[in-house]
Design a protein that fits this description.
The chain is mostly beta strands. The protein has one helix and ten strands; from the N terminus they run E-E-E-E-E-H-E-E-E-E-E.
Amino acid sequence: MPVITSVAIKRLPNGKDLPLPAYQTSQSAGMDLCAAVEADVVIEPGRHTIIPTGFSIALPAGFEAQVRPRSGLAAKNGVTVLNSPGTIDADYRGEVGVILINHGAEAFTVSRGLRIAQLVIAPVRTVMWEEKETLEDTERGAGGFGSTGTAKSA
């Protein structure tokens, strides 16, 4: 996968022995994030907590980092990213944290180095609102929240 944009990353003391975010395959969209906890953290069913990653980043203007769930944790344990996707803005310089929630039936233990989420770097468009009295009509119109149905069309 070619490198498109260089991003500055700072390893923090609590992440000194952990790998930096990394793509696991040549065509992965997201880089795995590891838990930089000093001791095991148990997340009880229905509870959530912020897990540190041990690094901070300096994204270039015009980019964001999206913190997304790992499908394996969700499918096997019911553990996911609470504010999915979490957004890290280009001007944020603090430690990247992951808000994990346990939707499973059993307590889930986060241990040091566990791959807990993915980080996707994406371009962001800045818009300027242009207020109008009316909007252009479309076939869908104001229909939303299931208005297109659930049955497969022929």
